[in-house]
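Last lecture ended with a question: if I hand you only a sequence, what can you say about the shape of the protein? Today we answer it with a concrete record. The protein is GTP cyclohydrolase 1. Below, first the input exactly as provided, then the predicted structure, then a couple of comments.
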Amino acid sequence: MIQNEEMHDEIGDNHIGSSAKNPLRSDAFAITDDEKIEKIKKDVHNILETLGMDLTDDSLKGTPNRVAKMFVKEIFGGLNPSRKPKASTFENNYKYGEMLVEKNIIVYSTCEHHLLPIIGRAHVAYISNGTVIGLSKMNRIVEYYAKRPQVQERLTMQIVQELQQALGTEDVACVIDAKHLCVNSRGVSDIESSTVTSEFGGKFKEEQCRREFLDYIKLDTKF
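The predicted structure:
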C-alpha cells in the first residue's frame, strides 16, 4: 500500500498523465449538479474544519457553498457534456484556402494532480478543406476542455481532436504555453518556468507548414 502511495505521489509530483481522456467514472452524471454541490459542500466544510478553521466566522460561513458551486458550475464545468459548445460550421464560400490562426486564447485550467491553477495561452490554427468555424467557437472549445481537472498534454490533444471532428479535416494545430501553480507556488517553487505543449495534425506535421504557424504566434520553440 505504501509503495502504491509513493508511486502515485511520484506520478503526481512529476505531472505525468495516465490517460488521453479525462478519467471519468461511468456514473459521473448519475446525480444532478445541485446534489453534487450539496455533497461537495459537506466535504469542503470537513476539510476546513480539520485544518482548524472556525467556520462560525462570518468570512468563512459561506466558503463551503461557494467552493462547491465553483467546482461544479465553473472551474470543473467542462466535465459535463451538456455544457459542450455547439461547433457551428459554415461552407467556405469565399474559398479561403490558407492557414487561419487564432492566437493568444486565454487558458484557465486546473492541474488534476494538485488541483491548482494552470494559466496560459492557447494558439490554434486550421486549414479549411471546404468548411470554416466561427472564431468565437474556437475560444469556447478551448474553454470547455480547460474547465476540468487536466494535464496540459491531454488538453492540447482534445482541442485539436474536437476541431478536426467539427471541420472534417486533419489539418489542425494547437500550441499551449502555460504556467502551472503546482510548480510555481509549491514543490520546486519556480515562478519563472512555463510549459509548452503542441499537437500537429495533417499538413501541420510538415516542417514548412508547422514553421509558418510558429512564426505567426512568435514562438521560437523547436518541435
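Comments.
1. The CA atoms of residues 22 and 150 lie 7 Å apart.
2. The chain has two domains: 31-74, 87-218.
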